[in-house]
Amino acid sequence: MTKVLTEEVNAFKVRTLNDKYVAIFMDATYIPLKRQTVSKEAIYIAIGIREDGTKEVLSYAIAPTESTYVCNELLQDIYSRGVHDVLLFITDGLKGMKDTIHQIYPKAKYQHCCVHVSRNIAHKVRVKDRKEICDDFKAVYQASSKEEANTFLGSMIEKWQKTYPKVTQSLIKNQDLLTFYEFPPGIRRSIYSTNLIESFNKQMKKYSRRKEQFQNEESLERFLVSIFDTYNQKFLNRSHKGFQQVTDTLASMFTE
Question: What is an example of a GO molecular function annotated in this UniProt entry (predicted)?
Answer without folding.
Answer: DNA binding
